[in-house]
DNA sequence: AAGCTAGACAACCGCGTTCCG
DNA sequence: TCGGAACGCGGTTGTCTAGCT
């Protein structure tokens, strides 16, 4: 459309749009410009309505509880603002996104927490240091694979070290988050995960944080979701999510069946079903305890799939 | 008072998904 | 089943404004 107006909306345009919106509600946005005689595209009308003109929007500052929830949800599902906004009545995805980018990211950084991974910078540096500390790349891959496989074998043998059922605690949240990060790191389509039981469980876990998270956390796992005075330390996501003790403690808390579907790096769809007591958890990318491990696990899979590509060259001359 | 800068936020853009004929 | 239109989402850009020099 050539005659489409752009830029900031005038009060006159807002009035027209408001009048139309209050009469017809939202929907069929392409017809809105024609019916309201606005020289805007339908897309622009929808945006203006959903971000600014809707009567149920809050325009005051974010509360501490809202901040708390945003950070928890971001840690769990990443920058899926529309989903996060759904948990915050009166807030739009744009509101949440901007608030995160302008305030919360800085706040976390000042606390020494990486806003992307929600881990302390020191931990990230240590992780990278561990990788860089190995001498020969090919040897490193081999030894890491070996160690990591051993670790995974041990985990799979442990009756309580399968994927926790019910997503009722911080450890499961962490595990799931790592899978998100893993998929994100490899450019996978996260929308595969949208609206699954798994995601809804996570969201409700955050939204009901004080009930679902804190009650089920291990003693070493802080959780302050929705409490009146939260601690920023609570937004550090903890390592060692798979300690046997944790799982033994958790085992009594879960009873619900969950089906998790993920799209792994090589587009193999993997389903994992968790009935109470089930032990057949089998993400192809394993149960990553950290982002770094997820990366290494992917490396491992690539090695298994394409061994000839990963072989050490015979000489480097 | 004028110019500059950073922060806040409204709006746009591109892309993926869904809907419908 | 397919293709185009519509919609929704997340990232980015543009504009305004307050504060500082």
TrEMBL record:
Residues 1-53, 54-104 form the Myb-like domain. GO terms for molecular function: DNA binding. Coiled coil: none annotated. The keyword Ligase does not apply. GO terms for cellular component: nucleus. InterPro entries: Homeodomain-like_sf, Myb_dom, Myb_TF_plants, SANT/Myb. This is Uncharacterized protein. It comes from Vigna mungo (Black gram).
